[in-house]
Amino acid sequence: ELIYRAILKASLIFDGSEVTFIVRSHPNQNIRQFKGLRKRYRAFNVSIAGQDVPFTDLLSKADIMINRSSSTLLEACNAGIPVVIVNLSGRPDYFDACERGAALGVYREEDLPGAIRTILNDKVRRIDLIDKGHEYFKRYVDTEKDFFTESLALIRTAPTFL
Question: Which of 18, 37, 101, 158 has its CA 20 to 30 A from that of 92?
Answer without folding.
Answer: 37
